[in-house]
Amino acid sequence: QVQLVESGGGLVQPGGSLRLSCAASGRISSIYTMAWYRQAPGLQRELVASITNGGRTNYADSVKGRFIISRDNAKNTVYLQMSSLKPEDTAVYCCNVRSLSGFLNVWGQGTQVTVSS
């Protein structure tokens, strides 16, 4: 099994920055993709950004140019650097890790990000 521990959420003013972290432990050798999803009240969960163990990234159009996903394979940790935050970025952000086959699919507990003045 894989366990995920997220950190870094909080309250920030519009235009501000936050960095989220998600550390994986356990059977980490099977992890291929690490990703961040978010879910705002009343809305469906959406993919924010993902990164493979080879470094290939994918971003939602709404965060391109503002968010950067990175991964430290030595620390088994994925980061989401969020800049130029907007009120519409307010959501619970969840870390997700998957194996290449999809057999492994683990979610973190989520961390609240609130963008408000």
Model description:
The chain is mainly beta. It has strands spanning 2-7, 10-12, 18-26, 33-39, 46-52, 57-59, 67-72, 77-82, 91-98, 105-107, 111-115. Strand 7 (67-72) and strand 8 form a beta hairpin. The termini are far apart.
Pattern of helices and strands? EEEEEEEEEEE
Number of strands: 11
Largest sheet: 7 strands, mixed
- Provide the gyration radius in Å: 14 Å
Number of helices: 0
Helix percentage:
under 10%
Mean pLDDT: 95
Ends: how far apart? 40 Å
A few lines on this structure:
With 117 residues, the protein is an all-beta fold.
Which helices and strands occur, and which strands form pairs?
Elements: E1 2-7, E2 10-12, E3 18-26, E4 33-39, E5 46-52, E6 57-59, E7 67-72, E8 77-82, E9 91-98, E10 105-107, E11 111-115
Question: Features of this protein?
Answer:
117 residues; mainly beta; 7-stranded mixed β-sheet; 4-stranded antiparallel β-sheet; globular
